[in-house]
Amino acid sequence: MKKIFYIAAILLVGSIVITYVFYLSYRNERLGELESRSQLIQTSHGPIEYQLSGESGPVILYLHGIPGGYDAGFSWPGYRVLSVSRSGYLRTPITVGRTPDEQARAYAALLDSLGIGSVVVMGASGGGPPAIAFTAMYPKRTLGFLGLFPISQSWHFLYEAPSFSRSDFWLWAVANASNNSFGRKVLGLFVPGEGAKRWISSGLSSLEEVWPPSLRANGLSNDIAQYKSLDLLNGREITVPTLIIHGTADIDVPYSQSEILTANISGSVLHPIEGGTHQMFSTRSEEIIPVMAEFLITVTHSLQE
Fold first, then answer.
1. Residues 132-190: pLDDT tens digits?
2. How many CB atoms lie within 10 A of CB 5?
3. Window from 16-25, 60-69, 195-204 with minimum mean pLDDT
C-alpha cells in the first residue's frame, strides 16, 4: 500500500514540475513576444505603449476593450493602424490617465509625439469611453468615429471574473485544460458560477488576448471603477461622421447603449447586427467588415485622392 502511495506521490510531483516547466516556457516566450512587437514612447503625459502597423495610408487610432492591450490590434489594407495599450494595460502605466478625458489627452499627446495629425478613431467595447471623449475633444484631428459595440453609458460587469483569471499561472493552466471536453467537465466541478463557465468555454483560443492578467489588472480595475458612472459628452457635441456597429443580442454591452449614443450624435448611423452578441466579430465578420470598409473609405477619401 505504501509503495502505491509513494508511486502516486512521485507521479503527482513529477506532473506538477513538468506542468510548471511548460508554463515557464510559455511565459518567457509570450512576454518576449509582447515586448518585441510594440514600442514604448515618452509623451507629455507619460510613457505609452503602441504598435503602428501598415506601410502607408490614413491612420486608424484603435482603442481596445476590456481587458486588452496593443496586442488586440489588427491590420487593415491601405491604412496604418495605431493600436495602443490603454492606461494600466501592459507597459502603459495607469498614471497616463484614469478618466476617459485624461486618456483622450494622452492619446492626443501620443499623436503629437509620432507626428500624426489626424486619425479615424475606432473604439471597441471598453475602448468606447476614451474614443468618444477623444472624438468630442479633438474634432479637428478626427476624420471619423467608428464604434464597435462601445460602452457609452454607465456600465458594470455582468459577471465577476473568476479568481483563477487573476493569476498568470492559473489562467494559463485553466485555459489549457479547457481545450478538451473532459477538461471542461472537470473544471466545471471545481469552478462553479456563470462567470467562470464563460471564461472556461472560451478555451485557449482567447488566452493570448488576456494573458498575462498581472500586466492588465490595473487597467481592468480602473475601467470598472470609471465606467460605473459615465457622462462622456458632458454638454459637448460630436460633429464628425460617426458609425456605430452593435449586436442586438449583446448582453455584455447592451444594444440600448448605442441607441442612446447615436440619438445624441447628430447625423450618426447605428448599424445593428441582428442577433449579434459581444463576440460577433468572430461569428459575423462577413457582415461587419464590409460596413466598416465602406465607412473608412468615405471618411478618408480626400486623403487618398
1. 999 999 999 999 999 999 999 998 876 555 555 568 887 777 777 665 554 444 445 44
2. 9
3. 195-204
Side chain identity, residue 194: E
pLDDT band at residue 30 under the 50/70/90 scheme: confident
Q: What is the pLDDT of residues 87-146, one digit of tens each?
A: 999 999 999 999 999 999 999 999 999 999 999 999 999 999 999 999 999 999 999 999
Burial of 118 (0-12, 13-18, 19+ CB in 10 A): middle
Angstrom distance (rounded) from CA 305 to CA 300: 9
**Homologous superfamily of the 40-156+227-303 domain (CATH):** Alpha/Beta hydrolase fold, catalytic domain (3.40.50.1820)
Per-residue pLDDT, 187: 45
